[in-house]
Design a protein that fits this description.
The protein has about 180 residues and is an all-alpha fold. Strand 1 and strand 2 form a beta hairpin. Helix 1 packs antiparallel against helix 2 and helix 2 packs antiparallel against helix 3. It is globular. The chain starts with a helix and ends in a 13-residue tail after the last helix.
């Protein structure tokens, strides 16, 4: 992780003089790594068939609850890092902020804009669950017993190949694949 942060700092060394901007990218990458760690935990616990079967034998109710908690948390965190950079109360440290407000060479910026575009397409699939279920319990959704999180998971399963291309949950942005 430290080498990746240093990689970003080297990219900006000629352009950024500010320690504040370097601290922002460190904070951004640390947050990304936390999301990645949670996602890897989810995959380890719930996407491996033998592990999932073992968990169901040991404490099915607990791990069903944990599954839901992790899914909701990942959806919320992914939406947060793909929120707009500018909102009415100020600036957010998001993908858009890093791409638009940091100084990049033209080729790196073009690549980052492409990644940001793919992430925004993925965001469109999950943001309704964030807005209507996770962030604010929508009365219409509750009354209709709409299982929005379940629908989001089904959409994600159907789009798995596409999601893997964009390396789910922002994996490509803070990797060396710039």
């Amino acid at each position: 992780m430290k080498s990746l942060i240093n990689f970003f700092i080297k990219l900006w060394r000629n352009k950024l003089d500010s320690n504040t901007q370097q601290q922002l990218i460190k904070t951004f990458c640390n947050h990304y790594f936390w999301i990645r760690k949670v996602h890897n935990t989810y995959k380890t616990l719930f996407e491996d068939t033998s592990t999932r079967e073992l968990l169901e034998k040991v404490a099915i109710s607990f791990f069903q609850d944990l599954n839901k908690i992790i899914i909701e948390y990942l959806i919320l965190q992914f939406c947060k890092i793909t929120d707009p950079a500018k909102m009415k109360n100020g600036l957010n440290l998001t993908v858009e902020y890093v791409v638009k407000y940091m100084d990049w060479s033209p080729d790196i910026k073009k690549n980052l804009e492409s990644i940001m575009s793919k992430l925004q397409e993925f965001r469109k699939l999950i943001v309704p669950a964030r807005h209507k279920v996770i962030g604010h319990p929508d009365v219409k959704v509750i009354i209709s017993k709409n299982q929005m999180i379940g629908k989001v998971i089904i959409i994600l399963m159907r789009k798995k190949a596409e999601i893997n291309k964009t390396r789910l949950f922002f994996l490509i942005f803070c990797d060396y694949n710039l």
